[in-house]
Amino acid sequence: MRTQVAIIGAGPAGLLLGQLLHRYGIDNIILERKDRDYVLARIRAGVLEQGTVGLLEEAGVAARLHHEGLIHHGIELAFGGARHRIDMTKATGKTVTVYGQTEVTRDLMDARDKAGLATVYEAGDVSLHGFDSDRPRVRYVKDGVSHEIACDVIAGCDGFHGVSRQSVKDAITTFERIYPFGWLGLLSETPPVSPELIYNNHERGFALCSMRSNTRSRYYLQCPLDEHVDNWPDEKFWDELKRRLDPQAADHLVTGPSIEKSIAPLRSFVAEPMRFGRLFLAGDAAHIVPPTGAKGLNLAASDVHYLSQALREFYAEKSSAGIDDYSRRALGRVWKAERFSWWMTSMMHRFPDTDAFSSRIQIAELNYLVESEAAQMSLSENYVGLPY
Predict the structure, then answer these.
(1) What pTM did the predictor assign?
(2) Residue 303: its pLDDT value, please?
(3) Which one from 136, 140, 291, 326 is the annotated catalytic residue?
(4) Distance (Å) of CA 135 to CA 2, 13, 28, 132, 215
(5) Of the listed 99, 140, 199, 220, which one is catalytic?
(6) Is 99 a catalytic residue?
(7) Given 22, 72, 73, 305, the catalytic residue
(8) Which residue, 52, 63, 255, 260, has most beta carbons within 10 Å?
């Protein structure tokens, strides 16, 4: 087979890139090692920056998002038994939209199917070749038959454990911080406890009250890294969540059976550079952020923005300036998001070495934040998304 851009990975980054390239008249094929249902079953982020929403509009897949998504103008910070609202729209003029990553993925898949674009699911033994030349190739096995795709460019959008970064592991520099705790998450068909997200700093550990819709809630508890989800029946989860919430939120919490429950470790990770000849990394293949700042999916979208524009310039103007500058531009925004996510994580969580002094510093930081317009401006402009 022959295509212009071979995209590895059918998550949101790969699908969004494929849809944008299609609208620019650039041919592409997506390879995904899992089946479609597996990809759609991943429970991930749900807060979209205004820039991400704009990209989905440009890709022509935002109709359901605008119909079902929840526009949020602020967040709440809870500590010391009380809640404090940060008005992000007042500070920045921007909003965020709550719309699950699963729904974004479904919308992109449906658009790709409608356009008749090629996606190969359950592609095994994927390997990348010749990306240090102008004639890269991708090989894979499907139903026991070997295939090869000749292309101009390979986009590695296949996540943290994918083949793309592994193919250049000897040529990259990695930066990583593993946090000494995880998030125990529960999804339930219950109304949210609050119309906006509540970030809770508590002596028993961090908690987050989030949602996917007006009838579906997502809650998280900080837990030890060695914790096991089987140790957390629903009743135990709800009881612990109530202990960490302020009294008003605890009284209004509606509990119910869990739809999904899982534990995710927290890490900060960056791979540099993000370009190797004709191979370009995007999304989780190049970086991971702790979910505290709601940046994972949005960073993948910003990578796609830079890469899609660079490829558009490469084909339309026969210029390599954009692709030559892709890694620098993408990493500039990545590191700012890494900083913000690290800061939010450090401010809201209890670390194993948290002593009395560290606890007082956290509370002082939170008090300063809710009392200072300048501090609220800084948090807000990062949370709603820095400009591309």
Answers:
(1) 0.95
(2) 98
(3) 291
(4) 11, 24, 15, 8, 50
(5) 199
(6) no
(7) 72
(8) 52
